[in-house]
Design goal:
It is built from eleven helices and two strands, in the order αααββαααααααα. The protein has helices at residues 8-16, 27-55, 68-82, 94-105, 110-120, 125-131, 136-151, 154-164, 171-183, 189-218, 222-249, and strands at 84-85, 91-92.
Length: 250
Amino acid sequence: MNTIDEGLVPLKAKLLEHPLYTKLTSIEAIRVFMTYHAFAVWDFMSLVKALQQKLTCTEVPWVPVGSPSSRRLINEIVWGEESDVDTLGNPVSHYELYLKAMEEIGADTVPIVDLVTTIQNGMPWQEAVSQAQIPEEIKTFVHFSLSTATTAPAHIVGGVFTYGREDLIPDLFIAIVRGLANQQKGSADTLLHYLEHHIKLDGDEHGPMALQMMQELCADRVKNWDEANDFAKQALEHRIRLWDFIAAQL
């Protein structure tokens, strides 16, 4: 039983066809995009880790928790997100890989690094986000993701992860980055690696496994599907507003 609302389809189409992509015609524009998109790269990891906490055993002593297939899905995704490899084969998280791509292309990493460092130093994330020197549009986006990750049940976090955050970078964007990389050799190699690798993982492995996870989390429970739908819709709407904001900066 899959009762994901068809109302998500036009929202995804709006994202994949967003005019933002047609504005990314220079390295300078890509730099601006990356400075703000970095927050989505970072907070995605909290959704992943929330699912790991809810679908696997993260305590000692270990005991079996939930579905073995869901455990495998989320552990594989965590492994890929936290300990993938860069273009030289060195272990790296996707967040750190994205930072490397930003540095390579000359994007401003200070806003995202300052926020993450503040949280690393012990400040509660709500306070850190509130005090961060970042636009309100970015704060709103991050707050939705982190509040969902820290307070929502597994089927809602799974809905946001599966239907509201995966597979939202179109081929058009990769083509633009590849064209710019050809113009300025070496400046976008890591970004291309990040995009192509991430999309391949989502399409070939993580996407199908995430759909199976949602079937297990919601099954024939209409209430679970309705709640997963509602939060996935909110996630897509937040991403559209983020894209609107970035487009306005260009």
